[in-house]
Amino acid sequence: MLDLYDYPIVVEIPVAWGEMDYFHHVNNTVYFRYFESARVKYVEAIKIEEYMAKTGMGPILGSTSAKFLAPLKYPDTISVGIKSVKLDSGRIVQEYGVWSHETSRLVAKGESTMVFFDYKKGRPCDIPEGLRENILKLEPYLADTTKAKETA
């Protein structure tokens, strides 16, 4: 079972009344904004903006998905956790968990892939080494998966 302590970045977000749909629960599209809020905090934590300014290289969202486990309604507050589960030379696969404070349960899970992109050249690129170091400081367990891949 996923736990908030499994995530290095967790954000709290109040559920807005306007996020509910005709069926009186939060609309499925809103969860992608919740994921985005956690992803923004993640990229701030690893200082991506510094590297983008210096190198012109940074992330672009390659894919995202969600699995809805229970309805979420207003009023509520949620905690959204994000962690990386795979670090390759040019991409990071990340996982999300969304917890309702009102029901004390996991209401959604998600996944996304950030692909690193050289915006000057207009093509995918490797993650800059200094940025990779920042990622590994935040999530040291990823070093084991990276080393295993390099030796394979």
TrEMBL record:
* Entry-linked Gene3D superfamilies: Hotdog Thioesterase
Hydrolase keyword on record: yes
**Record GO terms (molecular function):** fatty acyl-CoA hydrolase activity
Key words, A-Z: Hydrolase
PANTHER family for the chain: 4-HYDROXYBENZOYL-COA THIOESTERASE FAMILY MEMBER (PTHR31793), THIOESTERASE_THIOL ESTER DEHYDRASE-ISOMERASE (PTHR31793:SF39)
Q: What is this protein called?
A: Acyl-CoA thioester hydrolase
Q: Which organism is it from?
A: Thalassolituus maritimus
